[in-house]
Structure formats: structure tokens, C-alpha cells
Amino acid sequence: MNAGPTGARPSVAVLDYGSGNVHSAVRALERAGAEVALTADPDAVVEADGLVVPGVGAFSAVMRGLKAVDGIRLIGRRVAGGRPVLGICVGLQILFDGSTEHSSTEPGMGEWPGTVERLPSDVVPHMGWNTAQPPEGSRLFDGIENERFYFVHSYAVQKWEFEVTQPRMTPPRVTWAEHGVPFIAAVENGPLSATQFHPEKSGDAGAALLGNWIKSL
């Protein structure tokens, strides 16, 4: 952990690109033990111990907002350098190839293959508390494997299409949840992690997950 002087709190930048109410995420990260700045300053985004990419609203709007502050390049630069990034809600979705939301033609970042699609459920949006099924060895869900988390979404990635092409490659750890069909609730892939649910709105379980992430910085 790059925490600076002994006893210092890890620094976390929450990327400020015009997303909806992100102050709950800032407060939750502070309570979980981080020194937090809501910023789009390139130096602050790159130099922070951790970067959080929130996402509220439509996929295409989030992508446009990120591009407006050079967020796509900054996220990619951190990932390429092994610097931790955590996406939340649409902040997970934009890491995939694209979305069918509102017939969007806006491509995603393509960090993971797959398409964000509308949940085929009688009740949409999926709003409320739900369990998740993390894989063995998950760092995000360490100690909270059986807890419930708060979801608010109508679209999700419902197929995991990642192929391990090299024997020494460590495959991402994928957590699933279900609402009508199974969908991806979280991914852990080296420095890059993301959750479909809102840890900042998930009570003690969400606080523990953010704490696990902060401890890993």
C-alpha cells in the first residue's frame, strides 16, 4: 500500500465527470479509511493510490462525460501501470465492449469482452437488496461472502466471454447475482475492479467491501 508516512490514510480520487450524486461515495470511502478527493485533475487522478469511477445514468451519457474530462485515457493509463481502479454501477458497465441501452452506439472501454443488455425480468429496474455469489479467493468480498448489497439498474452483463489465452494468465474473478437471469455483479482483474451494485449504499457490507479495496491499494 502506498500510504505515505506511517499512519497516513491512502489517497483515493473519485473521478468528477458530471455523474449524478457522488457525495455518498465520497463519504463512504472516507468512513472506510481513505483520504478522498472528488476531482478531474489529471495529476491527482493518476497519482492517487486508488481511483473510483462512479456511474449513474445512461451508458452513453457516462461515456461522453468521461471523454469530456479525458477520463478514458486516465483510467487506461492507471490500468496499464497496475494502479488500482474501482468502477461502480455504470462504472462497471463502461469497462465492457458496449451497451444496448437506448440503442446506444457508444462503444465501451473494452477492458472485458461483453455487452450490457436489458434484464429480461418482469420487474425492472432491479432495485433493492440482493445476495451475490463471489468466487473463492475474492479480495473484495473477503469476510462478507454471504451478505446482501444494494442494486439499482435495468441493464447488466449477462454473459462472461473472457478467454484465457495464455497458461500463465490469471483469469479475472467474477461475482454473479440474479434477477430474472444471472448477471455479473462484480469483477476483480488485477488492478481493475468493479461492482454493479452500490457499495456506498450497501450498509455495513458495502463499507466492508470498500475497506477491503482500500486495504489492497
Summary, kept brief:
The protein has 217 residues and is of the alpha/beta class. It is built from 6 helices and 12 strands.
List the helices and strands and how they pair.
Layout: E1 11-15, H1 23-31, E2 35-39, H2 42-47, E3 50-53, H3 59-68, H4 71-80, E4 85-88, H5 90-93, E5 98-99, E6 115-118, E7 126-131, E8 148-153, E9 155-157, E10 173-179, E11 181-189, E12 192-195, H6 203-215
Parallel strand pairs: 1-2, 1-3, 3-4, 4-12, 5-6
Antiparallel strand pairs: 6-9, 7-8, 10-11, 11-12
Task: Describe the protein's architecture and organization.
By secondary structure, this protein is an alpha/beta fold. The chain contains 6 helices and 12 strands. A 7-stranded mixed β-sheet has the order 2-1-3-4-12-11-10, sandwiched between helices. It has a 3-stranded mixed β-sheet with strand order 5-6-9, with no helix packed on it. A two-stranded antiparallel ribbon has the order 7-8. The longest helix is centred in the last third of the chain and has 13 residues, at 203-215. The chain is globular.
